[in-house]
Design goal:
Layout lengths: L2 H6 L3 H31 L4 H37 L3 H28 L1 H8 L6 H30 L3 H25 L3 H27 L16 H30 L4 H27 L1 H10 L2 H28 L1 H8 L3 H15 L5 H13 L3 H14 L1 H12 L1 H5 L1 H28 L17
Amino acid sequence: MDEHELMGSMKISKAVAKMAIPSVISSLVTVVYNMADTFFVGQTGDPLQVAAVSLTNPIFILMMAFANMFGMGGSAVLSMALGEKNEKRVRNASSFVTWASVIVGVVFAVILLVFMDPILALFGANAETYEFAKGYTIYIAYGAPFIIWSAAASFIVRAEGASSEAMIGSMIGTIANIVLDPIFISVLDQGTAGAAIATTIGNVLASAYYVWYFLRKSRILSLHWRDFKCGDGILTRTCSTGLPTAIFSALMSVSTIVLNQILVVYGNAPVAAIGIVFKANMFITFLQMGLANGVQPLLGYNYGSGDVKRFRGVESYTKKCCIVVGILATVLYFVLREPIIRLFIDDEEVVRYGVEMLIAYMVSGPFIGILFVNMNCMQSVGHALPATILSVLRQGLLLIPLLYLLQALFGLQGVIFGQSATDYVAIVLSIFLWRRTARTVTAARQTPDGSITSDQGPSQQS
């Protein structure tokens, strides 16, 4: 199918389904991966190894922050260029994302290997966990270029309209990781190092698939160094547009650390429970995030081509889908709240805390997708700053002070409702910011016939 038909003329409901369903599947596979990795390391029965993986988790999250920045930002630049029929800019953007990911990955590897001792000490590794953490970090460092590029490449492939192929690449890496985890961790007795080896091999295989796709399947995506270009707004537009997603990933780890520090005052059971709730609640959040991320190329393409009516149609339909899916998932979780927690652990105290926390976290479940769609709309029209503000507020500047305030006012009950309270503030603020941005953009580019002028639009805005 021609990508211009999919992006520009196919029935909106069908185009959204074609783009969003593979993205949702990829997101849910990521959720399964996150659960499986912890599960298999836990099968060693050694809490020190589990602790070591937890201590080094910020490394992986930071890699994903860069991957998301390059991937989401490059996807926005590329989809707008497709809408403008600017194939040279498409090649430049795809090559930039590839080489920027590889260069940052190499820098990551060097920093981790050279400064491993102070980094692990900063993360809290002690004499008991150091060797396990070191074993994990060494192999994750070797895989850094593959981890960052394979994640970023999935966004670029999806932006071309090949959402199914992007899903396949993500699933290759994740399934390989899940299959190899028990082999390296338990059968070969590699422990935490085995988890890192499995992760690296999975991402190498995913990267190999994307190289094949770029070279054999795509008409316009490029891996060639000759197409690598930082100028013409490619570097600044990619990094600024992808910044909200990157900040979201990075601040998530910071807020988690703060939350754990607050909860440990009430004992170890709440800390264990919140870790389970985070993983369980990822299903509701990532379900809607996958929907929103999947349609981003549609939004960017139609803004770039000047079709404001179709842009609005995609936005409205996606929000309705998010609300319906969010309500259904939340109701399902409410009904099965205790069995869900018991899937992870059967300790009565932890289950009691976990059920209570899961209910608190589900409060924002029906409507959190509106936030993600509004953020992607702002990114797609080249207004990354409001989306960046929303990410910073939701995962840091608003959440962290609110956790301390609610603890002071309501104790543990206030703490566990902190994320949902923050989510609703962010949702309302996103509605206000997107409406204001939409009016500004439409007024600046509106023509007498009701369309938007197609004049490099977002790449010319500050």
